[in-house]
Amino acid sequence: MEISLTGLHYVYLIFILIIIVAMVKKRDISLLCILGIFILGLLGTGSLYKSVMGVFDSFVYATRELMPTILIISVITAMSNVLVTSGINEEMIYPFRNIIKSYGVAYWVIGLVMMTLSWFFWPSPAVALIGALFLPIAKKAGLPAMGVAVAMNLFGHGIALSSDYVIQAAPKLTADAAGIEVSKVISASIPLTIVMGVVTTLAAFYMIRKDIKSGKIFIEGEVEEIVENKPECLITSGKARRFLALLIFILFALDIVVMYVAKLQGGGATAIIGGTAVFILSLIAILSYKKNSLEEITNQLVKGLQFGFKIFGIVIPVAAFFYLGDSTFIDIFGKILPQGSNGIVNDLGAALASKVPLNAIVASITSTIVGAITGLDGSGFSGISLVGSIARLFSTAINGGIETLTALGQIAGIWVGGGTIVPWALIPVAAICNVDVFELAKRNLKPVVLGLTVTTIVAMFLI
């Protein structure tokens, strides 16, 4: 049955376009999303007080949906902080000191370690760990600080953050907006992530290698400062630190085994990683702070929660608006959509399919462009709910490909905004490596654009 579009559909579409324009102009979109929710409620219910209530209720709904993601990031951040203060972080990296003998090995080892740690801890906690411990080793091997920064960006904020296979924050956001299971987004993203990762990292390494040989890129002498300011290790025994570092690797490896055997994905995978992180945090805090451990465990959890809500504070109002594109609208404002409606976004997709000649090529290019635009705010996460909604709209129009389009938009959004292109998202890596943030963004630009182009072409054939 064909659904006739109402004013709600057009207002929702208008606000999506306004949000995209605001992102292009590098403006914050939280207020726009709040206004969008309010106006949709006012138009649908005709009630001022219900519209005001709807804004808050949509925030509650979005927070409830995102809470597991916020908590897992908070707990892992808290655990990472304790690993740094205890000195265990150094033991986790020490074996690589004897492996890195050339700038080529340094680039790939730093990148792969950054990617691995970022899958489990997210890039933000991993930046200080990798930068402080690997930068002196890389310099000795001939890789400049800029090369270290590029490797950390592309492997951590690019490959790991955009795929997010362990914590699954990114696929959770996009899958919810697209109305599909998280596992489907993850599966569809695997070939795209491989293509994007291989193209960008190889292109970047080629450019770095070329510049090193031509003398255009030098080893900065000031990187020595990073080594001099290492924090005092609270666990003084080297044997104890090494044993605990090995234990942590074993525990997380067991988590991966359990995930595979028990087929845990999404919330289940998040829960087992989060629970393990809580126990590791508690154990290391007890050994590090001894009689003050009870207070320090609480302090570290609070710091982790502050970080988690700081990261996702901007996401909640944005997600609240885009959740309204699904059947969530009924939960917030009641049954005010036309009879037979499958949600605002699905209705728009059906209407688009009947009037606009869309195909896999147009849908793929548009998903990449919209995803890249959502990353312009420097968050990488604040707008990826939008790419899920648009993927659902386009998949309805071309009769398939929702998983691939969702994964493609997610990859584009996070590669641009998560910390590889937008200068204000590169500050942590640039600071720890002591390089110019704009020069770092400039060096990442060509490999990332090339990667997105090739990945988009591959997506066209997968739809």
From TrEMBL:
Transmembrane regions? 6-24, 31-49, 69-88, 100-122, 185-208, 243-262, 268-287, 307-325, 414-433, 445-462
User: What is this protein called in UniProt?
Assistant: Transporter
- Top-level lineage group: Bacteria
> What is the species listed in this Swiss-Prot or TrEMBL entry?
Clostridium brassicae
- What keywords are assigned to this protein? Membrane, Transmembrane, Transmembrane helix
